[in-house]
Every structure is written in structure tokens, then in C-alpha cells.
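dumping this here so i dont lose it again. seq + smiles for zinc ion
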Amino acid sequence: MSTNFTGGCVCGAIRYEVTAKPMTMFNCHCRDCQRTTGGAFTPVVYVPAKAFKITKGSPRYYSTPSEMVGHNKRGFCPECGSRLFGGETEHGQGITASSLDDPGLFKPKVNMWTTDAQPWDHMDPNLPKFEKYPPS
Ligand SMILES: [Zn+2]
Ligand SMILES: [Zn+2]
């Protein structure tokens, strides 16, 4: 299978590749995403688990509680702290859009967990918003 896109952390210790189209893309505005990213939300590219491969390095993981999957296993570079991964299940894998080599690939379809969004978090008015998760 040919590589669709690649990415990695800011120091280069962790690299990954994806060999399929994303299943979905979204912005998560929950408090845990705010705290772990230091920003207003996490921009997520969600890809099939089978099409995702770490090609260099070993991320560290920290799990936060998740209403959807029990625990949100969040991956980051142990060297530079860059946030890279989240929402891992047997079916899919979330990747922070900012870690893509070409972040221009990111086209969010929805905003989720807007119930936690900050007043200084300005969202695209053309995108659907969900207080928690969108209906699946
Ligand atoms: Zn790094
Ligand atoms: Zn979140």
C-alpha cells in the first residue's frame, strides 16, 4: 500500500505514516484536549488503525477518561513533548493535524465537545457543532 501522508513531532524523534484516507476529521474542544494541547482544541485526523504505522521512535502515552471509549490514550514525544496521537481503538487512530508534514490536508467536518469550549475559541460558523460527540 502506498503512503498517503506522513508526519511527526517537532524534534524528529517520532515519525509516522498513514496508508489510507482519513475516516473523519474534527476539532475536539473538551477540557482534556485544552489542557493537553495548551490550545483551544485538538484538530484530529482520524484514520483506520490498520493503515497507521509509527515508523520511528516510541511515543509515551497518557490516558484521560473518555465517555466514548473509556480511556483516551494520548500519545506524545518523550523528547520534545509534542502531542501526536489520541482516541486509539481497535478500529481507528487519532492524529493531531498539526503534526502532519502537510497540515493543509486537514479539513475538519465537525466541532465536538463545544460544551467545554472557551469564549475565546472562535469556531467556523459553517461547521456543525455538537455539545459532546456527533451521532455515529
Ligand atoms: Zn519529539
Ligand atoms: Zn477532546
